[in-house]
């Protein structure tokens, strides 16, 4: 009886380890491989301002492609590039956390950025794992 219980526990541990290994090493989705939802920066901002819950239901964790003017370029806490696309509200923007840490983004330039929507924060709608369309 004890051997059977130990065998079952051992099997569960091995199975859990195998599942964990698979999940850790499975390929992650990339923004460039998915169909994107297209927006102008101000339109995405307005959707979230109008009804954040409804916008999250439609766009959270989906690939969004946003076109707008770069209002700010900075580094985030991970040392990556953060580009902020301007909206009609000067205190908020579309925050784009870029995948490539060595990318050159010019303030004042209009560009199209594609990434995964992570919702609305204090300073605007956030996109992660972003790339510049056409690069």
Walkthrough of the structure:
Helix content is 31%, strand content 37%. It has helices at 2-25, 41-50, 52-59; strands at 37-40, 63-75, 81-86, 93-98, 110-121, 124-132. The protein has a five-stranded mixed barrel with strand order 2-3-4-6-5.
Offer a concise description of the structure.
The protein has three helices and six strands, in the order H-E-H-H-E-E-E-E-E.
Write the layout of secondary structure elements.
Layout: H1 2-25, E1 37-40, H2 41-50, H3 52-59, E2 63-75, E3 81-86, E4 93-98, E5 110-121, E6 124-132
Parallel strand pairs: 1-2, 4-6
Antiparallel strand pairs: 2-3, 2-5, 3-4, 5-6
Helix pairs in contact: 2-3
Throw out a few tags for this protein.
6 strands; about 30% helix; 5-stranded mixed beta barrel; alpha/beta; about 140 residues; 3 helices
Q: Per the principal axes of the C-alpha atoms, what is the gross shape?
A: elongated
What composes the largest sheet? 5 strands, mixed, barrel
Strand content: 35-45%
H/E order of the elements? HEHHEEEEE
Mean pLDDT, to the nearest integer, reads: 88
Distance between the termini: 63 Å
Poorly predicted regions are: none
**Widest sheet, order of strands:** 2-3-4-6-5
Number of helical runs?
Answer: 3
Number of strands: 6
Structural category: alpha/beta
Assembly of the depicted chains? single chain
- How much helix is in the residues? 25-40%
Evaluate the radius of gyration. Answer: 20 Å
